[in-house]
Amino acid sequence: MTDISYLLLVMVVMTVATYATRLTPFLLFSRDQERALINFIAKNTPPMIMTILVIYMLKGVNYLSFEGVYTFIAILATVVFHLYKRNALLSIIAGTAVYMIAVQI
Amino acid sequence: MIRSVIKTTLPILFGFLPLGIAFGILFQELGYPWYFATLMGICVYAGAAQFMAVGMLGAGVGLFEIAISTFFLNSRHLFYGLALLNSFGAWGLRKFYLIFGLTDETYALMTTIKVPQEFNRERYYFLITLFSQSYWVLGCSIGALASSSLNFNTEGMDFAATALFTVLLIEQWLKVRKPLPFVVAFGSSCLALILFFQHMLLAAIVLSITTIIVLRFIKSKKND
Predict the structure, then answer these.
(1) Structural domain harbouring A66
(2) Quick check: A77 pLDDT over 50?
(3) Is residue A72 part of a domain?
(4) CA Rg, chain A, in Å?
């Protein structure tokens, strides 16, 4: 097997495996299906997953270094901006700019 | 509509572009032609899995192992679809693409934002997905093409993803206004961090969904 064909096979396998994870729930549960439990899960997953994603993004930060301080300040900037202006784009740009300036200087 | 979608997906651009570039640079070290990085961004379209693939390709890992690892790494998507069952419209090519392009970032956007009234929801979601993937493919390509000559310092730009999730978390709070799911998710995350640091994301999702179902069950028992 040459290198390229190995690479292509890996890509096919990964494409199928990734798509399978995304497609499965749509195949298992039909839309318009009134199932109390599924609706309950559907309603509660977004707030839960958003909480988890934020914590997940912060888990790799080294809190005993400047990185931790920068992260804290950048998050604070994002939150303050967002509560003040409630413009998602502005808050994200502000937070990211604060972080980039902090780590690059 | 396109202007509105670009504005909505701009945070994804800031997140995907540097991450894609990082992937392209890493991928280039394997010695394949640059356009395979592009192809991977188009077909596989999964951040973490693509980074994992670089290591596995380098080590020549077997296909079966790659399939299993990819599936488990991305298995959090199994839960994403649940919240979007009724949002993607009727079965058709568009729906298949919307599902194909479901990532952490697009999921977060679609479950939080309100589609402006004048636009058709499914078309709006389609453009969000298409634009997001374009940013990713662009990033992968730039990284692989210019791996040696890139000058712009993108260090810290990946914070955009954290900022995006933070903003969407605030929006979720303003929308839901019940502490329970947030508290459950926070507790599950802490437990998952302690027990399964490496696989924290999936562990926390499974744990929090299980917990909230159990809580609901207990509550309905009490009411009986």
Answers:
(1) 48-105
(2) yes
(3) yes
(4) 21
